[in-house]
Structure formats: structure tokens, C-alpha cells
Amino acid sequence: MIRRWFNKVLGRTAKASGPTIHTASQHGIRREQIHPCALKVTRTLAENGYAAFVVGGAVRDLLLGREPKDFDVATDATPDEIRRLFRRSRVIGRRFQIVHVYCGADTIEVTTFRAQTGEDEDKRVTADDGMLLRDNIFGGQEDDAARRDFTVNALYYDPVKQEVWDYHGGVKDALGKILKMIGDPATRYREDPVRMLRAARFAAKLEFHIDPGTRAPIAQLAPMLERIPQARMYDEMIKILLSGHAERGVRQLRAEGLHHGVLPMLDRILDDTSHQAFLHAALHDTDQRIRHGQSASPAFMLACLLWFDMQAAWAALKQSGEPDQATLYTAMDETLERQRDAMAFPRRLDGLIKEIWALQPRFEQRSGARPFRLLNHPRFRAGYDFLLLRAKGGDAPDELAQWWTRFQDAGESTRQDMLAQSPSGGEKRRRPRRRRPRGPRSDAPDIPSGDH
Ligand code: ATP
Ligand code: MG
Q1: What is the distance in A from the centroid of ligand 2 to the CA of 208?
Q2: In CA terms, which of 94, 217, 358, 426 is 20 to 30 Å from 176?
């Protein structure tokens, strides 16, 4: 039966209107796989006479046998009507109003069916270049399906009847591992250039091929990403970088020509072969952490991606003859500000990024009390993880990384031996101790942990 359905689905072309309805025995999604909060929301909406479906990524991922990241609900109830049904809820957004419904610590995003065109044209605001600035025209479910981006993202699961409603052949494309834009791809990218980044992200995450027609306009339209508000750019990039599929994601961005201009850091790193080993070590490591359920911070990722920019800025400033410590902080600030022109990452990340960078020269100081002070630094772990990546990428000596790996866990006497034997430690001991003048040494500044 499943096979017959499978063949039927594969043989079928997308219909212009009206959904294909796939039953539970065909699509294989079980109600128990739906998040209890999403079930509660759809049940309440249905009991009050509204249409209510789980939609988007959750249906796609369940169909593919993957665990969904989050559960979104679509309904014909308006944001105000949704608000009235759920005491713990609030309306979010202006460009695109959605309602957040809260159950305990969980949040379900509930969206009202939107139309691509409508009579209330004043609620849809389009710029001269076709970009959608506001999109709050409500419509039917079929309209809602048409304004979604990819066919696999326009699948609706009804938890009551346990049916999947498919308006654009999304089930067929999911089985064929094809990412295909609904409607005319160039128009859809012009409406919202972020869809180009989404194409790269989903292709990487789902290991899908981008349909040739969907892929073709990207090369020409990529510069439109420059018009995207920097905060949205940051959100999208973080979704790629912390998806657990960053390595493939970044490769996909490069393949689509989406790394140029708007993301100077990727531009430089990807086009400079001497830095690729470090970048790939960073992306690979982050992917592994996320897949093993460990945390990965945006600040650490940005510290990796901007490391060589910062180094270059520092090297240039050092030539001015100013003390290293001062120039290091100037270089860090300059690097972060320059990146902000393209992608506005929150300022609260700056502190950790700078700490990770500032700790790096301190790992070179392996004499006296300094290594012990460094071990007690609150950001030691992040700094050490960064050092390991640098060693993997050929940017720091393996011997240095291994030394710190051993030193952390060694007993007291081993530590004293290591201090005596380390290149800087041994040399240091032979010299008479002398108070350093104020200010850092030129080769390895001892940077205070302060408030940066
Ligand atoms: P993820 O697994 O990353 O959450 P997702 O498909 O759920 O993937 P979301 O960003 O959560 O992606 O969006 C939910 C749904 O909203 C999408 O599946 C898609 O149908 C629709 N959507 C989101 N962003 C856009 C967009 N820029 N243009 C058109 N439709 C969009
Ligand atoms: Mg989602």
C-alpha cells in the first residue's frame, strides 16, 4: 500500500489548486510525534470552529524521519481571535504578525493564513524593487500555501484527521530530496531576498538538491541581500552556523555565490586557502558539538570567523609603534565594527568575543604564576577550545595545544616539571627575575581579564 502510494506520489505533478490529501497510513506521521503544546493549540482552535494545522518545517522534518526543531501552527483565526483563545499568548512582529502561544516553557508560533494578493492592498507594502515590506493580508489555506517559500515547506498536518494537505507537490519533492520554490523563483527572491539564504540552508540541512529553476536566479540576485536589515541577516546566518550543518551550509553558500560582499568574513576566509583549515575545523567542531547536544555560542563562532580579520588589523596597527595591548583592543573594536556594517550581531556578544581573542597570546606564556592565573580565568575553557582549533588549523603550534591539554589535568609536581621544561618556562628560569616595566611585552601581552 505504501509502495503504491509512493509510486502515485512520485508520478504526480503538482496541482495548480486544491490539495492532495495524504492519509496517516500513507505519510507515516503519528500524532504522538507532534509536540503536546502544538496539539493543545490545534485542538483548542478546532474546538472553536477554526481550521488548525501544524505547518512548515515540522511536517517536512517528520515526513523525512527527522526530529523537528520547532512546531508552527497555521489557522484561519485572526491574530486577535487567537489571542482571545489563549490567555498566555501575545502578538509579535509588524512586518509579519504572528501570535506566540506559551505552554509552560514552550512556545508555539501561530500564524493566520496569508494571501499572496488581496483586496486589502494597503496591508501589503512593496518597495519599488519588488521587496515585500509588510505582509498582513489574510486569506484562505490555499493562498497561504502559495505564499510559502519551498514546496516541502507548504505541507499542512491536521492532527485531528491525521492528514497531510499538500498543495504544491511537497511530499513528492521531499521523497525526491528536491528543494523547489513555489511560483516564479526570481519574483519570490525579489520579494524576500532572504529566501536565497534559506535555499542554501535547507539544501545543506536536508541534503537536498536545489531544483535548477530555483537555483538559477540566485547568482544574479545575490546582491539584493545587501538590502536586508542587518539584524535579520544575523539571524539567518546564525541559523546556518549553529544548525549542526554549518560545514555543508557554508559550502552551499559559496556554491551559490552568496558569501560575497554581504558577509566579508566568509568572503575572505573561503577565498584564502591558508585560512580554510581553521575555518573548517571551527565549523566541523561546532557541528559535532550541536549534534551531541552540547552548547555552541554565537560569540565563539564569530570569534572564529573574524579571527584572521582581527589578526590582520592588529598586525597593521602594530607597525604604528604603539604598545601591543592598546593596539590589540583597537584592532578588536575595528574588526567588530567593520563586520557590523554587513551583519548586526548583538553588542552583548562583543565581550566574550574579545575575551576569547585576548586570551590567545596568554597561552604562550608558560612561566611562573601566569599559567595558573590563566587556568582560573572564567573564560579559560572558551579560550582553550579556541586554541585547540587554531592548532588544528595550523595557526598555533600543536605542541602548545598539547601542553595546555596536559597542564590542566596534571598534578602539582608534573605541572612544575612542565613549567620548567616548556620553551618559555625553561628560558625564563635561567634569566634573573626583574620587574617588568608597566605595559605588555612586545611578543605576548599579558592582558587583564577586566570588563571586555
Ligand atoms: P526550521 O527547521 O529551520 O525551523 P522551517 O521550515 O520551520 O525550518 P521557519 O523559518 O521556522 O522554517 O519558518 C516556518 C515556515 O514559514 C516555513 O516552513 C515556510 O513555510 C514559511 N516561511 C518562513 N520564512 C519564509 C519566507 N521568507 N518566505 C516564505 N515563507 C516563509
Ligand atoms: Mg520552524
Answers
A1: 17
A2: 217
Atom of ligand 1 nearest to the CA of 154: 20
Residue-level pLDDT at 17:
61
C-alpha to C-alpha distance for 24 and 163, rounded to whole angstroms: 6
Please tell me the number of the ligand nearest to residue 60's CA.
1
Residue to mutate, 61, 71, 72, ligand 1, most ligand atoms under 8 Å from C-beta: 72
As a whole number of angstroms, the distance between CA 289 and CA 276 comes to 20
Cα gap 124→227, rounded to integer Å:
18
Provide the pLDDT confidence category of residue 127 given band limits of 50, 70 and 90: low
In eight-state DSSP terms, residue 130 is S
Domains of the chain are 1-176 (3.30.460.10)
Band (pLDDT 50/70/90 cuts) for residue 126 is low
| Dmax (CA) of the chain | 86
Residue that wins the pLDDT comparison between 197 and 321: 197
Question: What is the rounded distance in angstroms from the CA atom of residue 353 to the CA atom of residue 238?
Answer: 15
pLDDT tens-digit profile of 348-361? 999 999 999 999 99
Q: What is the pLDDT of residues 171-216, one digit of tens each?
A: 999 999 999 999 999 999 999 999 999 999 999 999 999 999 999 9
- What's residue 130's pLDDT? 65
Ligand 1 centroid from CA 234, angstroms: 16
Among all bound ligands, the one having the nearest atom to the CA of 202 is 1
The predicted model scores a pTM of 0.82
Half-sphere exposure (Cβ direction) of 287: Cα atoms closer than 13 Å: 15
Q: Which residues are catalytic?
A: 70, 72, 149
Residues near ligand 1 with C-beta < 6 Å? 56-57, 69-70, 72, 148-149, 153-154, 192, 194-195
- CA angle, residues 401, 245, 239, in degrees to nearest 5: 105
150 CA distance to ligand 1 middle (Å): 9
Return d(Cα 200, Cα 208) in angstroms, integer. 10
Q: Write out pLDDT tens, residues 331-349.
A: 999 999 988 877 788 999 9
- In tens, the pLDDT along 387-398 reads 999 999 999 999
Atom of ligand 1 nearest to the CA of 243: 3
Helix ranges restricted to H, 93-229 = 141-146, 170-176, 185-191, 194-206, 212-215, 218-221
Q: Which of 205, 261, 206 is nearest to 233 (CA)?
A: 261
Q: Which H helix or E strand runs over 334?
A: helix 324-340
Question: Which atom of ligand 1 lies nearest, measured to the CA of 201?
Answer: 3
Residues of the chain above pLDDT 90, percent: 62
Which amino acid residue places its CA nearest to atom 30 of ligand 1? 148
Q: Is 51 helix (H, G, I), strand (E, B) or coil?
A: coil
Distance 55 CA to ligand 1 centre (A): 9
